[in-house]
Amino acid sequence: MPLAMPMPALNETHDPALRSWVASANIASTDFPIQNLPFAVFRRQGEGARGGVAIGDAIVDLGALARAGILEGLAAQAAAAGAHDSLNALMALGAPAWSALRLALSRALRAGAAQQSALSDCLIAQREAVFELPARVGDYTDFYTSIHHATNIGRQFRPDNPLLPNYRWVPIGYHGRSSSLVISGEAFRRPVGQTMVPGAGVPVLGPCRRLDIELELGIFIGPGNPLGEPIPMTEAETHVFGLCLLNDWSARDIQSWEYQPLGPFLGKNFATTLSPWVVTLEALAPFRLPFARDEGEPQPLAYLDSVANRAHGAFDIELQVLLRTPTMRDTGAPAASICRTSYRHAYWTVAQMVAHHTVGGCNLRPGDLFGSGTLSGPALEQAAALIELTEGGKRPLVLPGGETRSWLEDGDSVVLRGWCERAGAARIGFGECEGTVLPARAC
């Protein structure tokens, strides 16, 4: 029988009535109210990188905060750990330290706080910041947690048997390439690889012609585990620092030729884009949902089950994909929304991914990254990849202004957005995750 864990506690930092002396944090549409306080790594031109915390349109510079001596105890220790050019040291400290820093910043940023004068010297404008990857990612594992995405993809290749039998029992994943992770705003070149044209007898080397997106969430690991010691479900979330947005760009034609028998390789390793801001699990506590399986679906094996996971293991995170073509950019037209879905539709939870990843003895380390897999929902408009939205390119999207897209073209930009909102809680957001496709290099 799975052991119980308490519901993630709502505390004073979640109070929707809180207001900040940073005026932009009180705007209803902001992603970064005082109830959020996500982490990133940034720099200004000519300066070194360090950690920061978002508040409205500003950043609390953790380097300046640590030097100012405003905080004490565990909160001060956490701020000092976050003042480096990556968040790995902060991630390694664990949830008590993250929570202490979050509480101290919440109190210091509230309207009327005594620390306003001292803390205001630690703020910089987000518009002045250049963002870096939040952590030095040693290992990156991409999962496959949407049964709707898995079924939609499977139906295109196996109409009579779209979902393989292991999917309902095991969180599927593969080892990704951490060296090609890039931060939001960076452009990347269209990948080159081998493809086999239908009906041909010999493959060719050339630029990808079926370039796709995958709307995902990134999950950053905090404290790790020793080699050979699995992380049980009852402890899994204590090893998770927070979530960000992730676009797992995919070269579908390269992928389809190379993936058997060992899975993704060049079709995935050319670029994966992350949003800069990492939202902590504590900030997401008001947006928890029960984990439940539809009637007729098998229940998880015991090592993937817990009372806590059933009670509140899922998250209601709204997600959106926007596409901006070169023509839209040139004419000043807004980006077109092509997908709107929610993380609530995922088949496997964050805790289950951690527990399964380590059940064989694999050791995780601070800063390791998981991808959730493409987070498609049950309806077509919730399909989170072009291969689903266009049925493998057979039904092109018609965009405002009359342009069409089956696959991404050179110059296209894709923007991912994510946010949580419900009655009785402050809206919190993830910022944006944007990438732009450049032409392939000559081959």
Task: Tell me what you see in this structure.
- The longest helix has 15 residues, at 95-109.
- The protein has 2 domains: 12-132, Fumarylacetoacetase, N-terminal domain (SH3 type barrels), CATH 2.30.30; 140-438, Fumarylacetoacetase-like, C-terminal domain (Fumarylacetoacetate hydrolase, domain 2).
- Mean pLDDT is 96; it is low at 1-7.
- The strands form 7 sheets. Strands 6, 7, 8, 13, 14, 16, 17 and 22 form an 8-stranded mixed β-sheet that branches. A 5-stranded antiparallel β-sheet has the order 4-3-2-1-5. The chain has a 5-stranded mixed β-sheet with strand order 9-26-25-20-21.
- With 443 residues, the protein is of the alpha+beta class.
- The chain is globular.
- It is built from 11 helices and 26 strands.
Outline:
By secondary structure, the chain is an alpha+beta fold. Helices cover 19% and strands 25% of the residues.
